[in-house]
Each structure stands twice: as C-alpha cells, then as structure tokens.
Design goal:
The protein contains six helices and eleven strands. The chain is of the alpha+beta class and 206 residues long.
Length: 206
C-alpha cells in the first residue's frame, strides 16, 4: 500500500509540474491546511475561504444510491465519508492546476504521500473523469481500469450511473408544470396573431 501511495504521489506531482507552465495568474502554486469536506470530490480550506475540487476525478452525487448483490448502499454518501476519513485532522496539501467554471480551484491533493484522487479511483470510490476544458489525467484511467476489472466499489453496481450521466438524466426530466401566475379574476392577454394590413382588416370589419 505504501508503494502504491508513493507511486500515486510521484505521478500526480509530475503532472502538476507539467501543467504549471500554463497555470493562470490567479491560480496559486500550493494550498495547505485543514479542510472541510463538501462532497466526494470537493474540499473547503475554510481558513483561506478557498474551495478545491480534485483534478481528473469525479464521485457519485450525494443523493445517488447503488445496489450490489441485492444490497442497497448510499454511493454518494460513501464517497463523502471516504474523503472525510482520509482528511479528518490531517493537513491536506494541494497543487492547483486551473479553475473550473465556478472559479473554484482544480488541484492534485495529497495527505502525506497519498494522492486522494488516485487512491479513491483505485478503491472504486469514484471515477477518472474531467469536464470539458479541464485538465485530463490519463494515468487515472489506467488505475480505473484495474478497479473496474476487480469490481470494486462503484463498479460492483451495474445500474449505478456515473455522476455526469446521472446529472444529465436528472436535468432532462420534465419539470412539473408551473402554476398559473395570472389572477383568475383578470383577463388573460390576447393571443398573438399575424399582422393584418389595415385595408384587409377594414374589408373584413362590420
């Protein structure tokens, strides 16, 4: 396990260095300290007021559940709990590489020699994934293939949707029809009709 942790640390460290050359000016080189876990992929350095999301990694949404061999389990809550156990009362060291669409930092994060994203993927807690225009970590997909082959964690549940597909399916659901905002005691606005030339309208009038 120690060897794997060191391998993950070196791997992500090298990736961070390669991405440093293109790091935007508003992205710090390092952020370090205690964190509050928001969900399976996101942590909050509360003393710095900075939210960080793990690069190249995605975990089930908090409300997602999975079923493995007939046993239902809260996949999203498990991912969050895993992150809490890994970071509780520990210093987290992050090497930011970019910002996401919400202006939060995207970073490779470590507790000691443990690369959080790589370890989570190896244990089947979540997925190797990057959103459009975000840094990709190809080595994470190799780690994921092994976890998938062994049927670890999320890969033990055949019907569990990856979070990006789950969100897409959720957002496509037809929303309930909004209630009528007009006061029923007032007349509704007239329907929109094509413009009719004045001469034509006069010929049709009584």
């Amino acid at each position: 396990m120690r060897t794997a942790a060191i391998t993950f640390a070196l791997l992500a460290g090298l990736l961070s260095l390669s991405l440093a050359q293109s790091r935007p000016a508003d992205v710090p080189r390092q952020i370090y300290g205690k964190v509050q876990v928001i969900d399976g992929t996101t942590i909050d350095f509360k003393d710095r007021g900075q939210i960080v999301r793990l690069a190249g990694y995605e975990a089930p949404r908090l409300e997602q559940t999975a079923v493995s061999e007939g046993i239902e389990w809260p996949a999203g809550q498990v991912a969050k709990a895993w992150m809490i156990l890994r970071t509780l009362e520990r210093d987290v060291n992050c090497a930011p590489v970019a910002r996401d669409a919400n202006k939060n930092l995207i970073a490779h994060c470590f507790v000691g020699e443990t690369n959080l994203a790589a370890t989570a993927i190896a244990e089947g807690i979540g997925y190797a994934f990057n959103y459009k225009d975000e840094p990709q970590v190809p080595a994470y997909f190799d780690i994921e293939r092994k976890a998938r082959g062994l049927g670890y964690g999320v890969w033990s549940s055949k019907d569990l949707l990856p979070p990006w597909l789950y969100v897409s399916a959720r957002d496509k659901k037809t929303p309930e029809q909004a209630p009528d905002t007009f006061d029923p005691g007032l007349p509704l606005p007239p329907p929109v009709t094509p413009d009719i030339p004045a001469s034509s309208a006069e010929s049709q009038g009584g």
